[in-house]
Design a protein that fits this description.
Blueprint: H1 3-15, H2 22-27, H3 31-44, E1 49-56, E2 59-66, E3 79-80, H4 85-98, H5 126-130, H6 158-165, H7 182-192, H8 197-206, H9 220-225, E4 230-231, E5 234-235, E6 252-253, H10 255-266, H11 274-281, E7 285-287, E8 290-292, E9 297-300, E10 306-313, E11 318-324, E12 329-335, H12 349-362
Antiparallel strand pairs: 1-2, 1-12, 3-6, 4-5, 7-8, 8-9, 9-10, 10-11, 11-12
Helix pairs in contact: 1-12, 3-12, 4-7, 4-8, 4-11
Length: 364
């Protein structure tokens, strides 16, 4: 998925014409009706099932929908989260910075057998990794060699990473250009907690925020609640990753957990991670239309307020979260189909999320 294109079009989606006719849009503007229309649009675009959660005016609302013969999801249904997990890794970084354990301008440091690519006089910093401005490629160059196309990260080891880093060339000098990089966020996770990234995310972010179903390891009860991922209408396996999981490649969550996470974003002062959350939302890097906090992308709403958002996807799931602190509104969308079909069709989960947030924001 092209994140620059998604973020560039987010504001356009917010200000563009509705996916519904004016008559239908005006028929019922209650929160449940708006959410239902959004879910119906997700199903019409090809999603087997979808769940949408909203925060507006301190009220939380969640609903799900499914195609014929499919199980209707709810707030406790487990989906694979994808790159929204990067915001958790960024929060862990911000926690370490707030505690004085590291600095945003600290250079990326890994064990000696992992060579850090360089271009120009400045080394890659943790802030560069967290704002996609490191110059690193999107993926390690050897990742897809011999990979299972349905589970592309599963075979990748730390030894593979060490070898690939030795052959990696930066496209630009660090801090110069925005270029979305799963490799960069995978390295950020390893820099924060080498070979214990998943444990670090649970203890430093998920547990303090009460995100009990946000994890890379499915408990038995979560297996019973998990949606089945799809690609082209066919069930596909989940993704697994132990090396670059800081990029969100293998993390699971639910709409209920994401609403707790978004509630903390809207009111950090009520959260045990206030300082870290505030730091992630602050603008740290700008490159043309790309404006970055730590992991978070920032874009304007029609109201002039700032929208903070991130989308995600794995081989069988597509997700998006967006919020506006000034209006106290937030939306999460989770569907169990890959973001792009074999025919090249993009499922409009990001634009649907942004349009619903924009409509809710306009009410405030």
């Amino acid at each position: 998925m092209n994140r620059r294109k998604f973020i560039t079009t987010a504001a356009a989606a917010a200000t563009g014409t509705s996916l519904l006719s004016g008559t239908a849009a005006a028929a019922d503007d209650t929160l449940p009706a708006r959410v239902r229309r959004t879910l119906d649009q997700a199903l019409a675009a090809g999603s087997p099932s979808a769940v949408c959660g909203v925060i507006q005016g301190g009220r939380t609302y969640v609903a799900g929908a499914a195609g014929k013969g499919k199980r209707t999801p709810n707030g406790r249904t487990v989906f694979q989260l994808g790159s929204i997990g990067k915001t958790l890794t960024a929060t862990a970084l911000a926690r370490a910075v707030s505690a004085g354990e590291t600095r945003l301008d600290a250079p990326l440091t890994l064990p000696a057998r992992f060579p850090i690519p360089r271009k120009g006089p400045r080394r890659i910093t943790l802030a560069d990794l967290a704002t996609h401005s490191s110059g690193l490629p999107r993926l390690p160059q050897g990742l897809l060699d011999g990979a299972n196309p349905y589970d592309p990260y599963a075979h990748y080891t730390l030894d593979d990473l060490a070898e690939d880093l030795g052959e990696t060339t930066l496209a630009t000098e660090p801090g110069e250009k925005y270029a979305y990089s799963n490799l960069g966020f995978g390295l950020l996770g390893q820099a924060l907690a080498f070979d214990r990234v998943d444990e670090m995310l649970r203890h430093r972010v998920a547990a303090p925020l009460g995100l009990t179903d946000t994890t890379t390891t499915l408990r038995p009860d979560m297996l019973l609640r998990k949606a089945v991922g799809h690609a082209g209408g066919v069930p596909v396996p989940d993704w697994h990753d132990r090396v670059l999981s800081g990029a969100g490649t293998s993390i699971y969550s639910t709409a209920n957990d994401m609403l707790r996470f978004l509630a903390a974003q809207l009111r950090p002062e009520r959260s045990p991670l206030r300082a870290a959350i505030e730091l992630t939302q602050r603008r740290h890097f700008t490159d043309g239309d790309a404006q970055l906090g730590l992991a978070w992308h920032l874009a304007p709403l029609p109201s002039g307020r700032t929208m903070t958002l991130h989308d995600g996807g794995t081989g069988g799931f597509t997700t998006c979260v967006a919020f506006c602190r000034d209006s106290g509104t937030a939306v999460v969308m989770l569907v169990n189909t890959v973001s792009q079909g074999a025919d090249g069709k993009q499922y409009p989960i990001g634009p649907l999320t942004v349009r619903l947030l924009s409509a809710l924001d306009a009410d405030r």
